[in-house]
Write a structure and sequence with these properties.
By secondary structure, this protein is an alpha+beta fold. The chain folds into 2 domains: 204 residues, Nucleotide cyclase, GGDEF domain (Alpha-Beta Plaits), CATH 3.30.70; 63 residues. Helices cover 46% and strands 18% of the residues. The protein is built from 9 helices and 8 strands. The strands form 2 sheets. Strands 1, 2, 3, 4, 5 and 6 form a 6-stranded mixed sheet that branches. A two-stranded antiparallel ribbon has the order 7-8. Strand 4 and strand 5 form a beta hairpin. Helix 2 runs antiparallel to helix 4, helix 4 packs across helix 8 and helix 8 packs antiparallel against helix 9. The protein is globular.
């Protein structure tokens, strides 16, 4: 009698997990739940953002095209109502270049993931005028598609921890995407400098480590045609949002933080004080 092959048991593996919450969504639903044009418009923009991310994932980046295609294939974007889930396995990662150390290779993968999260948030901000709070964690994660691809099962400590970061941020009332110590201190095990901090992907604010969204926007003069319009779209979104909601006590601090962050970045990084939000 032939023995049945032993089934592979489910086992969590290290993943980078980003959990994001779209700010102002509940208010949008309450105000416009009976307005089909608003529903259609929001759905179209969110769908467009996901399609844009797929285009970015298949982008041709000159000599870096092959490397980016390898990375992009492992990053997954999922959107459920006002919640975005972005995941990428962080184990058994192919070397993206022949002459890199293990630490450098991990850095290239991690920075690519963080860049993808940033770009997604910036597209939503520029096109829809809405912003995210959230958390990013490196931790154990398992997922499968029971029965068929329409179902998704997750068993994930990383997702739980990312949600804790997001809820902490919600209690504070600030609109930041926090980065957990599992990410920010990952490179300490190599005794090396922290590349994601040195390359500007994260910064400290009080006791929190925050994702620097604008780090994903190119500075090169040759890309001016894409950079300035995106920053202008975000400037208009912030100004319009503040004019509409700035008088509401629990909303005003969110816009004050976002405007302060935006003004600092456009002035210090891009040398474009003309793109500041003046309120």
């Amino acid at each position: 009698m032939t023995a049945e092959p032993e089934q592979k048991k489910p086992k969590p593996i290290p993943y980078l997990v980003g959990l994001l919450d779209l700010l102002g969504y509940s208010q949008l639903v309450e105000e416009f739940q009976h307005d089909p044009s608003v529903i259609e418009g929001v759905e179209s923009v969110l769908s467009g953002a996901l399609k844009m991310m797929e285009k970015i994932k298949s982008a041709r980046l000159g000599e870096h095209t092959g490397m980016w295609n390898v990375v992009a294939e492992k990053i997954r974007f999922r959107l459920i109502s006002d919640t975005a889930l972005i995941t990428m396995p962080f184990v058994d990662l192919p070397r993206l270049s022949e002459n890199v150390t293990a630490s450098d290779n991990f850095a290239m993968w991690m920075e690519s993931f963080l860049a993808s999260v940033c770009l997604f948030c910036l597209v939503i901000a520029g096109k829809l005028g809405y912003f995210f709070r959230g958390g990013i964690i490196l931790g154990q994660h398992y997922e499968s598609n029971p029965c068929d691809s329409r179902n998704l099962f997750m068993f994930s400590q990383a997702l739980v921890d990312a949600n804790k970061l997001m809820q902490e941020e919600k209690k504070l009332g600030t609109p930041r995407i926090l980065v957990g110590e599992s990410v920010s201190k990952f490179f300490e095990q190599y005794g090396a400098k922290n590349p994601i901090r040195e390359d500007g992907w994260i910064f400290d604010e009080g006791v929190a480590t925050v994702l620097n969204l604008y780090n994903a926007i190119p500075q090169q003069p040759k890309r001016e045609g894409t950079t300035a319009p995106l920053l202008e779209d975000i400037r208009k979104a912030l100004l319009g949002g503040y004019e509409k909601h700035g008088s509401i006590d629990h909303i005003r601090p969110k816009y004050e933080w976002l405007i302060g962050y935006h003004n600092d970045q456009v002035t210090r990084k891009f040398n474009r004080p003309d793109l500041q939000v003046i309120v």
